[in-house]
Every structure is written in structure tokens, then in C-alpha cells.
Amino acid sequence: MFILTSMIRSLLFVIIILSYSSVIGHSQAFVKTRDLFQGSINNAKKGQLFIFQEPALDTLITRYILGNKNQEEKIGYLGINGFRIQIYNSMDINAKAESSDVEIEFKSQFPDIISYRLFAEPRWYKVRVGNFRSRSEAIKFYLIIIKRFPNTDIVPDIINLKDLNMK
Is the pLDDT of residue 73 over 90? Predict the structure, then answer.
């Protein structure tokens, strides 16, 4: 009798868990990519393309698109993962003035390469230069810069492809 009661309880527990998990799975809101791109198809000569895919995949693509839009708003431009060369990094008392001097010196020696002066909490002032898509692309320029700026390093960053190292 005791074994039968505990078996019924176990079975009831499993049924409750399974029904609860299926309710959670079906209640997830899916976002459709087509809702992001509002366009009208008024031209009768245009064809139609139907893509059948899992709603979860469509949600992932939509989240990726919205994440890139948020990133663009946060940093001011739409970028991709790449590399920059960091020629100055300090949190000294005069770091703000020194970073400005380093940037001016860099611009005088390399006028065609874009530079970025950054501030990071708590008090870090940084000067980064270039927009390089790969580390090997950055190394070519790094070997030239290290002679004039000895505390130089290649760092991963979100790069702006519109600039492409031009002012």
C-alpha cells in the first residue's frame, strides 16, 4: 500500500512538472524579423519569397538586429568587432592633458590615420588609433608605431568601417 501511494505521488509530480514546462515553452513571445523592416510591396512585378523557419530562430535574428541598433546608439556608429592600436593608457592626475598631447603628436606624425581619445571609469584616459579588421592588419601598422610610441599595444575594439582609417 505504501509503495503504491508513493508511486502515485511520483507519477503525479512528473505529470505536474511536464505540464508546467510545456506551458512555459508555449508562452514565450516570439518576435518576427519582418516586423522590424516595414516596407510595402506595391509593385506587381516583384516576386514573393516565403521562408519557413522555427519562430525561435526568427527571434534570435531579431535580437541580433536590435542588439546592433542598440550598440550603434551607444557608441555613435555601427561597428563590428575588430582591433585598434592603443598608444596611451593612464590614470595619472595629468592623464587628461597627456592624452591630448599624445593624440596631437600622433596626428602630426600620422595625419591619415584616425585617432580616438577615450575615457573609461574610474579615471582611465586612453588614445586608440586605426580601424583594423584583423590582428594581422593591425600588426603591420603596430610595427611602425611602436618605434615612436613605446607603450603601444593592439587591443580588441568595436571599429567603425565607414572611416577605414581615414579622417
Answer: no
